[in-house]
User: What shape does this take?
Amino acid sequence: MTQSDSHSRHVRHAPLSRRDLLRQAGCGFGAVAASALLHGETARGSSGILPAVHHPARATSVVFLYMDGGVSQVDSFDPKPRLDQDAGKDPRSLFKVDATQFNNVGAVLPSPWAFHPRGQSGIPVSDLFPEIGSLVDELAVIRSMTSEFPEHTSANYFLHSGSGLQGRPSMGAWTGYGLGSRNDDLPGYVVINGGLIPPGGLDTFTNGFLPATCQGSVIRPTGTGLANVIPQDPSAARQRATLDLTRRLDEGFTNRMAGAAGPPDALESAIANQELAWRMQAEVPALLDLSGETAATKRAYGMESEFEPTRIFAAECLLARRMVERGVRFVELTCPQTSGNDRWDQHHGLRKGHGENARAVDQPIAALLRDLRARGLFESTLVVWSGEFGRTPFAQGSDGRDHNPQAFSLWLAGAGIRGGTTIGVTDDYGYRVIDKPFTIHDLHATMLHLLGMDHTQLTYRFSGRDVRLTDVSGVVIRDALAEPG
Assistant: This one.
């Protein structure tokens, strides 16, 4: 076998539509192809793409808990006693200080929160996260993550798409492209918007150059979760007739346009999205209706909390569980707004800002992990908790922390993850990684691996090259994985 032959077996090019495949293949082979395609309809779902599983999957769904703004690693999962010893000193007299976002370098700032060993593993977690800390034996805490970007917009794009450029496909879109949907009546990639769309806007969740059916669908956790999901016309038959007419018109135009330019993705996706929207009208209202959940479940998640941001994030986490139950591939949760705070981005007021943000998410996240475990979903759901970078161990001004892309912490839990472990080491101040540095490409490679995909083989032909989520790098973080079996 030649090198080009071997390469062609693994590259995933822009997919043909079913119509184009039959037109090009001819009647005899087309009949065989049609049979196979129809047989695979359930696995393919609304994306129109055959699954690309390269090895047995440990996870069938991902829940990404996005801590927008950058949680301080030295105040959460990476304790540094040296900060107490050198409190108030000029950090430039202790170590090399790189340029920061605002270059307002203050003194070394100890954490306002104490760290305590938690669980049987004894991993220290700060008092910022008492509930999550109680479940540390379920977590693989990676203390040696790095980013390539020191400002939010590019760092958000990088975290989501593996590129600091706007318009590249998000990891949720890549998941849908590679695996299709497990539920034909719901999108494969859903973003639950708690109130804060990240810097970079909705392009953070874009499909980019992937088929438009892979784009994230944004749903609100309270009120009207999804605009226009209830049909304007009460007659289902009349609406069905309208959609059928639209589909026939689109298909006629598609047939005339097909040819040199290849399959017209915009029209193919429009047809698929209209059909999905039709099916969602029956599925989404039931999905968003939490009235059937028990009082104990709602209380455990924090839906009765006196703190409104906790109630909002509780609804997000509960909806995430319900989506996983219904087969949504990738669910992302954004943070709720807390009074006077700009996400986890505490350039000042660290104690108040981080304290209120943690209060909003700590109980709901712990309840989500427990609920997934109780319902038999934990072993098939990968849960990822992360921001886009970390924060400095010295103050910005007197009581804040600036951006630090050189080191931050995140954690993984659930499907295929070895809980009760820490990975990587930062220096005595939590400023730089000194052992086992990892990048966002490594995180993405690990996520795809647990979903059954080899990140080097999941590619899409774009702009003359075979593009992948991990660009030209990325390794699976093996230390975070449990032994199979």
